[in-house]
Amino acid sequence: GMLVGTAGAVFMVVFRQDVFNGNATLLLANGLFFLDCVTTSLYVIFAKVLLTKFGSLKVTAYSYTVAACLMAVLAVSGTLSCDVLEVVCAESDDKDDGRWTCSRGATTKLQSHGNTDADTEIACSAWGVPPHAAAALVYMVLVQSGLCYFLVTWGTERTHASNTLLYTSLNPAAAAMLTAVLVWCGKDFGVLTLPTWNMLGVIGIIVGIGIVFSR
User: Fold this and answer.
1) Residue pLDDT, tens place only, 81-103
2) Taking the CB of residue 113, how many other CB atoms lie within 10 A of it?
């Protein structure tokens, strides 16, 4: 059942995608998505062990404390690399965002556009948050991350870890359905398109879940 559900999710992600034909950005994105799935699985597995001694809220809090420390190290390290900032700071159509230059000295320094000593131009400051992204950032931290991971931990405490992990295969289906709703409502943000035949992967996901819970 888990194999069938996973196969359906993979089909939804890779169908008609130029993943293996030299598209480095798409390959990196799918690689990071795969890494996210692996680390989420490991979280559920290890959380199941910790839940024998601690409650779901405490396990989530401990996990986020460790994650916050690791993210702090990663964030600071990232700001010291112009190559990383060039990837993170995507091009923006907002004229108010300004341009920044990144120096490749012993310490990386972001200055206003026009510094002739810098050799890399990027589209944002290292620690800047565009005003229009603030609401999305709050949602990602409080709801998509904190609340959802607490619910995953709470569910893992009350069922088998395999059952919890199986539901993660619903992520591509939920994303595809939400994308369709946004496009139909005229909120495609210039990048979203309606799902195509990859929606057939939903059948595999549903069948996989049915197999697991029919046993």
Assistant:
1) 777 777 777 555 544 445 566 65
2) 10
